[in-house]
Structure formats: C-alpha cells, structure tokens
Q: What sequence folds into this?
C-alpha cells in the first residue's frame, strides 16, 4: 500500500512529525511538500487502495489558509486518511475538525487524527525542543494504531470520526499575527529566503524587508537563512513573547483519536 505524505512545514517541525508517523506505518511513502512552488499546481489523486497522511501546522486555531485552499488539489475515492495537527503548545482549537471536513469533501474517510506538539514557530521559547522523545513515542504508537486500522476496513467504512472542535468554526476569524520576520545587518542578500517564501512576501531587490500584508509568519525564511540574519524583532514582539511564554508554560501532551475501536 502506498502512503501519500502531504505536509506544510515552514521551519521543519511539522515535517519531522509527519516523517516520524510515516516511517512507522510500514508502507511505501510518497512525499508531497506543500511549501514548494511546484505543489501549487500538483494534483494528487489517491485511490481507495492507497492512503493519505495529512500533516499541517496550526495557525490561530486553524491550518494555514493557503493549505486549506490547496486541499482542492487532493482527490480521494473513499480513500482512508490520517490527519496530524502540529501546534506550539497553546491549543489546536478547531484545526482537526477543519482538516476532517476539508478532506471529507474531497472523497477521503478520516480514520485517525492526532494533535502533536512542536516548537512554536513565532515564540520559539515556547515548546522549545518539541517534538521530544515522549512525543516521538506517542507518534509511533499512533502510527501503529493507524497501520492496524488500515488493515481492517470493516471497522471504519461508512463511519465518521469524532474530534474536538466547534461545528460552527470560522477560519476567517483568524486574521494573522502582527509579527513578521525580517533581516538584520548580517543579511548578505543571497536570496534563499526569497526562493522559499510560499507567499512571495520577500523581494529579491530588498530581501531584508518583508511584506506584512502577504507574510503568514510560517518561519521558512528563518529556517533557510545561512547567515541567521532573519528573525522577529522589536519591543512589541518581545513584550508579546513574554506574555505568551507565561500563558503557555504548561507541558501539553499529544492527543489521538480513532474512527473505531478494536474488538
């Protein structure tokens, strides 16, 4: 069986979670990196005899809007899907419900869902070092349950998975954050940040600056910068980070849900 590993990962932590899960499912894996420009045009048809692993970061309680729009490029046919929401220790809110609903409209049957922890993409002192060893253990257990569930279609055919979240969620309620990374004096103008930005928010002529109207604060430009020149700056950012650190200091654990339990 082929597993299509679809993910969006600006700073690499969602990919780390997706890869951990995929590697434990014992299937042939085909990767689809939605951060790349080629992914915008890619159409992915996945028949019932294959499976989808759909891993997305959580921004303000939802998956990134560009990813929600791109779900229309996925086409299933009663195809089993596993979803993983990766969040930075605040909460995943309605992300799992949103992911389930989007995939069901495209012909998928979501058989398992997990909410996993990773270093916060903006306030990196929150959930620093996540996913950790306990997280990876949980993801491997999740993958094992998913693998067994995939082999028993009679347990989940014509059923609907129940996950936390509001039925009346509104993704448009999240307007983004007021913080966007930019370059400092270490910037040498190499343009790697320009190439990786999924929104085209960084110009080649002046790569130190970021168009805040386009930037979704995914952090891809920070992760790719060889000079470590890009980051979040300013007093307002530092003040917000201090408050966020205090609010989100509690250690959260992964949560996992399945469409059916075993007999």
A:
């Amino acid at each position: 069986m082929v597993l299509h590993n679809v993910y969006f990962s600006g700073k690499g932590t969602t990919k780390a979670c997706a890869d951990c899960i995929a590697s434990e499912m014992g299937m042939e894996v085909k990767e689809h990196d939605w951060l790349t420009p080629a992914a915008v045009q890619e159409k992915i048809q996945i028949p019932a005899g294959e499976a989808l692993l759909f891993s997305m970061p959580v921004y303000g309680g939802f998956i990134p809007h560009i990813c929600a729009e791109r779900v229309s490029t996925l086409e299933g046919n009663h195809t089993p899907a596993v979803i993983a929401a990766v969040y930075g220790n605040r909460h995943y809110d309605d992300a799992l419900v949103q992911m389930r609903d989007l995939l069901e409209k495209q012909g998928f049957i979501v058989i398992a869902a997990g909410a996993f922890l990773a270093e916060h993409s903006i306030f990196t002192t929150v959930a620093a070092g996540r996913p950790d060893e306990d997280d990876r253990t949980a993801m491997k257990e999740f993958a094992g349950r998913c693998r067994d569930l995939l082999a028993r279609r009679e347990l989940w055919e014509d059923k609907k998975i129940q996950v936390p979240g509001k039925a009346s969620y509104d993704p448009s309620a999240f307007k983004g954050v007021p913080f966007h990374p930019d370059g400092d004096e270490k910037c040498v103008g190499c343009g790697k940040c320009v190439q990786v930005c999924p929104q085209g928010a960084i110009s080649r002529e002046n790569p130190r600056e970021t168009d805040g109207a386009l930037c979704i604060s995914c952090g891809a430009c920070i992760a790719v910068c060889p000079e470590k020149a890009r980051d979040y700056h300013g007093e307002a950012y530092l003040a917000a980070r201090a408050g966020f650190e205090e609010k989100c200091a509690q250690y959260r654990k992964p949560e996992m849900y399945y469409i059916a339990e075993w007999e």
User: Anything to note?
Assistant: The mean pLDDT is 95.
